[in-house]
Amino acid sequence: MGLNLGMITTDSTDPVPLAHWWAGILDGEVLAENEGWFVVVSTPSGTLAFQKVDEVTPGKNRVHVDLVVDGDLDVEHARLVELGAASLGERSEGENRWFTLADPQGNEFCVATEATEGP
């Protein structure tokens, strides 16, 4: 018996625009909107879902997505900010360098040039 990752689901009070934002930055497509209560996004690297909740759990997310850019990290950081992400800071550990950002609804994620063994 084995397990495979099916999708990563994010709670949202307004999942449709958030799903479209993630589809846009990841060159994906919205597969199903399900009347706005559960939105599925297919990307070249996996499936994301955004489910409607009355209120999100307060505080920092307990799980976040790490994105890898195969190009210029600074250019990608600037592109994400231009598309509506908030930059929360640049970090590094040894030779690894990455940016922590938040999507338009405050969900944190990181972007790096390679997979990092970060915090």
TrEMBL record:
SUPFAM superfamilies linked to this entry: Glyoxalase/Bleomycin resistance protein/Dihydroxybiphenyl dioxygenase
InterPro entries, A to Z: Glyas_Bleomycin-R_OHBP_Dase, Glyoxalase_6, VOC_core
Domain VOC: 4-114
Record-linked Pfam families: Glyoxalase_6
Position of the signal peptide: none
Name under which the protein is recorded: Glyoxalase
